[in-house]
Amino acid sequence: MTHTGLTRRSVLRTTSALALPVLGAGALAACGDDDTGASGPVDMVFSAWGSPEEMKKADEFVAKFNAANSAAGKISMALTPVDSYKEKILTQLVGGNAPDIIAATDDFMAKLIESNAVVELGPLLDGADSKTKTSDFGAEAWGAAKTKDGRYFGITTDANPSLMWYNTKVLRTAGVAEEPSATFEAGKWTRDYFQNTIDKVVASGVKAFVVGSSWYDLYPWLTCFGGTVYQDGTFVAQDDATSVEALQWLVDLVKAKACYHVLNVPAGQGQDSLFMANNLAFTTEGRWVVPQYSKISSLETDVVHRPSVDGKMAVTATYTAFMTINKKAKNQDAAFKFLTEYGSVEGQTFRLGDGGVSVPSIKGADAVVTQGGYPKHAKYFTDAQTTAFPLPVEEARVPGLSAAIQRAFDEMFAKNGDAKTGLQAIAALANPAIEKGQLN
Amino acid sequence: MTALEQRAPATPPAPARPPSDHDRDRRARRWSERGWALFFLGPQLVGLVVFVVGPLLFAMGLSLTKWDGLSEPTFVGLDNFARQLTDETFLVSLRNTLFFTVLLVPGELTCALLVALALHTVRGRVLYRLFYFAPVVTSSVAVSVVWLWLLNGEFGPINAYLRNIGLDPPNWLVDTRTVIPAIALVSIWRGLGFTMVIFLAGLQAVPKEYVEAATVDGAGPVRRFWHVTLPMLSPTILFLAIMSFIGSFQVFDIAFTMTRGGPGDASYTLVYDIYDLAFTQFRFGDSAAVAVVLFAILLAITLVQLRMQRRFVHYEE
Amino acid sequence: MRVLKHLFLVAGAVLMTAPFVWMVLSAFKDLPQVFVIPPKWLPDPVVWDNFTTAWTALPFGRAYLNSFVISGSVVVCTLLTSAMAAYAFARVRFRLREPLFVVFLATMMVPYQLTIIPVYLLMRELGWLDSHLSIIVPNALFNAFAVFLLRQFVRGIPREIEEAATIDGANRLRIFWHIVLPLLRAPLAALAIFTFMAQWNNFLQPLIFLSSQDKFTVPLLVNQFRGTYTTNFPVMIAAAAVATIPVLIVFVVGQRSIIKGMTLTGSNR
Fold first, then answer.
1. Closest approach of chain B CAs to the CA of C168, in angstroms?
2. What SS3 class is residue A160?
3. Which 211-230 residues of chain B touch chain A by CB within 8 A?
4. Whether B88 contacts chain A with CB within 8 A
5. Beta-carbon separation of B137 and C247 below 8 A
6. Is residue A23 pLDDT above 60, yes or no?
7. Distance from CA of B152 to the nearest CA of A (A)
8. Would residue B41 be called left, alpha or beta, if left means φ above 0 and alpha means ψ between -120 and 50 degrees?
9. pLDDT of residue A38
């Protein structure tokens, strides 16, 4: 092996030398290394994804924080829509020009830790100035922010567990008189009961729900019946009879035209629009649809957990947003102060209340989800969050694996394939990648 | 330096003068020609070197390293090339890209030429031109939403119509066999306006006398097209073929917004692979290696196209 | 025959314009209306709020100014620099002319994903990050498409005109400025329109290089409406529809010169 150590800076310098001869040294002289040891007030950047509408509350929070902490300097929020977020932040990181405080998705969080780009937060989180102790979060909430050896590099700022939304009008028309939430409360919300509901809905000429291919849409259908997807860092669903059976059930539902697969639904907001038009009995979504659904007065809807074997609450998946501090942050203490306030009970309560579209990740802020009274069983969101799993770290730690698995599930559904074979193919894709830490 | 200079193309014969003067004059002119070349090319040359060649060299250097963008790069020689050239995703991407190109380049040129021929002399062409140019100014969000609906297997009007006339249409964007043709269709639709406009310009330059002369000689419309119009259009066709070819090999946006490379890897293309390796998988070395390969393929084929120009393209000079 | 031709053209025109029409009409709908299945084309009721929502949510006034400044400067500079380069490639004899031209052509084949990171590093070294210079300068100083296109036209200009001027003692700069440039008016007009459109819609460079909202361009702001889980499509589409107006005006006004300017036969008349 001839692995010669090349420093990044030397690569950059060489290239600059190649690329800059014409412009002369004048411009070059202007740049220097980032200074990290600044004292006194410095302005810092917090970058996050989201639309301005979604981030309105976060923006207000930042303004409030700045007003209360003017001595330390100003935090400004840089917003990028989620689909171009990683491209932008990654380029900034590579260019040594990254924001001080970074919001990260699961796979990005894992990468930031691996490449040693972010601050280890464990001691700070359990320090005296912390409003986000490690014990304030459920064990599941850490996901990619916690390493295998138990060190913490980020916190989750909010979450979004996947629940079933049901269309009461569609169910009533199909002859399902009792609302699924009532059935659940009675302890009867089981697979058999659900199958019965599906049959009635389909008989009335409406489809039951939309089957997705992402981990967030699909894994909960395996776990709600007690299936296992990952075990000890390995993808095992193909050998788990419950998972195989559950997936085959979904494939058969799609084949029998009782459900749509997501690829067959027009894009944009496929399942939402079918649901709002009373063409679908259930959707599987998070809290983010509240602003949209609550505006339509003709839509009668509520949430329920997925069905389970014994009628108890099913384990579901949850989206998590992470927040972490760049090692090169201009003032790490001030950055941590911002982070801990942003993630604290007060911070989450402020950001997620009234018009919020997510669920708190920290214990003790639950009231914010139920205070608006929409949907009726909004408390299921916070209940579900206590046991919900984020993107499995095995998948998060291999950049691109999650997307590759999703495409493989798409292919399986597109071909009406056999669940066992499909899962075996995915295991053959995933397990070597997990071992190597990269795809193929 | 002087050796290079002596092989410079001969300047046109100068007016008769004493030989010694002539020599000095030639040398002076050659020098001044070089000065003028630098002067006129200067700004674009700076741009070329600083913003394209420099970064390209950097990227080529990157293709010899293992680099995740965040930690130190490691030199790995040709490992990335060795791995990528046998990588299944790369091979699938290459195959998909070739398939796409084979559909797109002739498809786009033929459609655009047909529309241009129809528009060339028709009444109301100003209005038509505007309509046919609409896709160029339609926001890509609207494009993808509308086309995803048009091509939808279940709800889409295209399949509703095909079922009506008794066919069993495929589920365009979901079926792994039809997803590339479907993307090619949308790409042709999107690029038609631009290509058509350039064809129209080319058609207007075909001298009317030629066409009239051919008519007098008894040539029908088909013969006139093959023997007069088409040869006169050949420089336009070459230009568009090269542009369309380069564009199709770099197909990305539509695959990215409409299918995300799926289902499976059925709409993975080379640039999608390059993007995915770098910005999803943090493998900048591998990504650069694929990009260098793509660059080499494009360069080779374009050189062949330019060479063919000498045989097929008719310059009226 | 003529009826057939019109039928063909009308059918094509409908297909070509449908998404544009859908875009404009959707700007007047609310969210539930946009995604009704099967789609309804006409908004009912007509919603005007999207435009005001979009306009007040983000600083669009500033963004339009930024976009005009960037696109305008790029157009002016590109026309000049690429006409100069095209003239050199077509008329000035120098060694390496053909290989250099091939290099120009070859650069069109470099996928941007390959160079975006090195260019970002370069911009950082130059201190141009978060400055409009990072977008204007690279585009103004380099446009291989324009050079390729204009070279074809310069080659079509009869040499006699220039030779006559040379005998009158004019140097190359005078010839370029007073003879060649005026003859290139038509292709330059076409190129101006294409360049303007390309810059107006330029998304990637501003996305990567700019970070303060007061420097953002129009496409960046339009894209800002994209949500994490769901997007408020009508507002986004209203913003996108308004953003196409300048491009549309430029095309309607300039389409005659495009047709005139894009004559590529290099003929000697």
1. 15
2. strand
3. none
4. yes
5. yes
6. no
7. 6
8. alpha
9. 47
pLDDT score at B26: 66
Q: In chain A, list all ranges with CATH 3.40.190.10.
A: 5-160+319-391, 163-317+395-436
**Pairwise CB contact (< 8 Å): B263 & A414:** yes
> A267: pLDDT confidence band, cut at 50, 70 and 90?
low
The CB density around residue A141, as the number of other CB atoms within 10 Å, is 22
**pLDDT tens-place string over residues A377-422:** 999 999 999 999 999 999 999 988 999 999 999 999 988 889 999 9
In eight-state DSSP terms, residue B10 is P
Give the DSSP H or E segment for A156: strand A155-161
CATH 3.40.190.10 fits A5-160+319-391, yes or no: yes
DSSP run (H or E) holding C256: helix C233-261
Please tell me the distance in Å from C49's CA to the nearest CA on chain B: 19
pLDDT digits (tens, 9 = 90+) for C4-24: 888 888 888 888 888 888 888
The mean pLDDT of A156-168, rounded to a whole number, is 95
In this complex, do A268 and B49 lie within 8 Å of one another by their Cβ atoms?
no
What are the residues whose beta carbons fall under 8 Å from the beta carbon of C75, sequence distance 6 or more?
Answer: C192, C195, C196, C199
- Order across the sheet with A318-325: list the strands: A75-80, A44-49, A101-104, A318-325, A155-161
> Which chain B residues are closer than 8 Å to A263 by Cβ?
171, 173-174, 263
How far is C138 from chain B, CA to nearest CA, in Å? 6
**CB contacts < 8 A (A, C):** 110
Q: Count the neighbouring beta carbons within 10 Å of the beta carbon of residue B130.
A: 18
pLDDT digits (tens, 9 = 90+) for B236-274: 888 888 889 888 988 887 778 788 887 888 888 998 999
What's the whole-model pTM score? Answer: 0.83
Res. B316 pLDDT band, cuts 50 70 90:
very low
In a mutational test of the A interface, the residue from C226, C229, C235, C236 whose CB has the highest number of chain A CBs within 10 Å is: C229
* Helix/strand/coil for A78: strand
Note whether B272 contacts C: Cβ–Cβ < 8 A. no
Q: Is the pLDDT of residue A258 over 90?
A: yes
Q: Tally Cβ neighbours within 10 Å of residue C130.
A: 14
Closest CA to B172 of B152, B145, B146: B152
CB contact under 8 A, C114 and B44: no
Quick one: closest CA in A to B90, which residue? A440
Residue contacts between B and C (CB atoms, under 8 Å): 271
**Share of residues in chain C with pLDDT > 70 (%):** 93
Q: Which CATH superfamily is domain A163-317+395-436 in?
A: Periplasmic binding protein-like II (3.40.190.10)
pLDDT in tens, B83-123: 999 998 999 999 999 999 999 999 999 999 999 888 887 78
Q: What is the DSSP string of A418-432?
A: -HHHHHHHHHHHHHH
Which residues in chain C are contacts of A84 at CB distance < 8 A? 207, 223
pLDDT at B30: 65
Cβ under 8 Å to B: A residues 390-409: 399-400, 403, 406-408
Answer yes or no: is pLDDT of B19 > 60.
Answer: no
Which pLDDT value is given to residue B27?
65
Out of B4, B8, B142, the one facing C240 most closely (by C-beta) is B142
- Interchain contact, B139 vs C240, CB within 8 Å: yes
Cβ contact B44–C84 (<8 Å): yes
Question: Strand B65-66 to strand B74-75: parallel, antiparallel, or no bridges (unpaired)?
Answer: antiparallel
Question: How far is the alpha carbon of B103 from chain A, nearest alpha carbon, in Å?
Answer: 23
User: With bands split at pLDDT 50, 70 and 90, how would you rate the model's confidence at A13?
Assistant: very low
Nearest to A55 by CA among A417, A261, A342: A342
DSSP per position, C155-167 = HHS-HHHHHHHHH
Residue A9 reports pLDDT greater than 50: no
